[in-house]
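In this section we walk through a basic example: taking a raw amino acid sequence and producing a predicted 3D structure, encoded as discrete structure tokens. The instruction is simple. Fold the sequence below.
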Amino acid sequence: MRMAVIRLSKWANISTTAVRKLQCSGSGARKWGVAGLVFLLGISLPAAAEPVRTVLMVYGESRLSPAITVGDENIRAAAQEGSGQSVEFLTEFLDVGRFADAGYEALLTDFLRGKYQGKHIDVVVAGGPSALRFLLRHRAELLPDTPVVHAAVTSAQLKALSPPPDVVGVPIDPDPLPTLELALRLHPQARRLTLITGTSAWDLDVEKQLRAVIPRLPAQVHVEFLAGLPMAGLKGRLSLLSNDTLVFIGSFQRDGAGRSFVNADAIAQIASASAVPVYGSYSSYVGAGIVGGYMSTFEAMGWQAGDIARRLLNGEQASALGLPTVHRNAYLFDWQQLQRFGIDENALPQGSVVKYRQPSFWEAYRGRIVAAIIVVLLQAALIALLLVERRLRRQTAAELLDSEKRMNLAANAAGLGMWLWNIGCDEIWATPHARALYGVGASESIDFDRFLSTLHATDQEAMKKAVETALVSIADFETQYRVIHPDGELRWMLVKGQVESDEAGQPTAIVGVSIDITSRKLAELAAEQHRNEMVRMARVGLVGQLSGSIAHELNQPLSAILANTQAAQRLLAREPVDWQEIGEILKDIVEDDQRAVEVIQRLRLLFNRGESQRQPLHTNELVRDALKLAHNDIVTEQVSLSTELADDLPSVVADWVQLQQVLLNLIVNACEAMAEKETTMRKLTVRTWRDGGEVIIEVADTGKGVDADVEARLFESFFTTKTNSMGMGLAISRTIIEAHGGRLALANNSERGAEFRISLPIIKEGVDR
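The resulting token sequence is shown next.
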């Protein structure tokens, strides 16, 4: 028991103190000793955070074996190939080749049972016959219901183990006979064959296979076994072999002195000690010193086992996998050993794989040779190009000078000032005409700050923002601003610029043109003033049409004030004076006075000559205020009023007075359009609602509607169907709505009347108001 514990401490790489604690527990407390060992090893059972499939890979030998390393990589890759699921891989190296006593196996079983208690394992992969043998012996107490996939197990070993149906895999056939026959064909002078094996369980199995095939070899070949020798004695025997001898290595995991080896290390020592060719039947031997052989590669074995594990994880049943009966072998050779012993590659079987081929001079230095040739060709081409470029440069310089003269002539004729701002050095180049536009001297240097200083103070910040936005987005821009010349003259400029960038997308320059638009701007301002004056005159005319309604609106509060004043006089003449009643009368007088003031204020707004003032307003409030002003006309014309105002309408940015003017014009027109209708048929409907990003105001009447030929010209200036109208109301109304970014449209409604619909854009979130 003590020896088993000491060996396990070396295998698991745990501290001597932990092992001593386990020893102190005694054989009667093995369960608690293993639990303590698990704790000391820092092994914990992870909580299942998300569904993960788990594959436990168990290898019978040391993790240092190259065959295990190659096979393990391919198992992991194949198990996850196109699976689309998360796979967790756990690995155990039993190392039973070095620690083969029963005590070690019992302690190893307890350790694994404690380690994986409560851990769900979906598939177990057994790498090698010793791992499969261990799992079959202890499967019932370790992982009784988990399917097992075996790899690197021979058909004979599998038959001897007789596994249950859910233990699946593709067995290998490391038959040494094809390799031995091939070696004899490649070396026709050979008359002696030396076979080497070790003393481990695997070595003995391989020796048994070799002895079984000896009778099938040619009778003239003398066969000698060097089985179970110490490594030193074996190398001494190999150094004495004659030239007509071939060596075949079966397996050498442990020598006759009990020293354990990784097969590849043992092969390297044996091959280096032998002066004659060495052959073998395992792919891990290739590259360690053997010439080659007929074998299964551990890459293919690993991929096959991983693919089987993947199919089991995907839900396929072990009995329905349809696996091959045996793994396919191939001829594999080491190029360096072929060269060492002068073996012609053409003599190798068709389809042979030759590894570790030393590249030829061209193969080894092809990149450098090609690079050198390219450099020479490039240098020659560069010299030729430089000569051509020199000639073209002179020709281009002459053409550019001529082109610049023509361009300046055309720009001056068109009134364009051309400029270029080099952002890196903050220098602005400008044509003479551009300098004249900004009042800058012909020899004066210009940077961005000097350019900004020529602008009107209130326009400088806007220009800076326009340039900054263009530089960030690498986009063209267009803007207008005012320039103040040194003599105080103010000029309007239209500027169009284009941002240029480098390969990394960083702005390098802005190229642009400046155009003097002072004359156009003054004409626009004059037209705006004329338009505003016309709008005001139309508003004054509208007030005249509403004079009856306005008089009625004023008459009501003024009459109430007069009546309340007279009543107060009478109360003051009585004794005793009812001061409470007097207070109520005075309160009514104040309220009626406020009503009259509101009417006068609305009237003053309609007469106002000031500039348009746009601000956020609520559409329904605007509609209600307009209906108040037109109330008397609506009543006088005996029109039935209906309102359908939507709740929670968003605000619009507009001029209150101008929109009220449009609404009053539409309401008055609607009342006049129904004058010839029976009083019971006169119906005015005002609606509001939201349509996407717009607020809609609709004024509908039940008049005679609009004829098609009239509808086409209805919004033209000076067009009217009335005898006492100038025909400007609807034209001005449409102009006002379009200036607000909206639309004014007409449609005949279903009741043979007209519908005028105003569409106004709502205030967007985050927009500066």
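Looking at the output, two observations stand out. The CA atoms of residues 471 and 507 lie 6 Å apart. The mean pLDDT is 81. In the next section we compare this with other chains.
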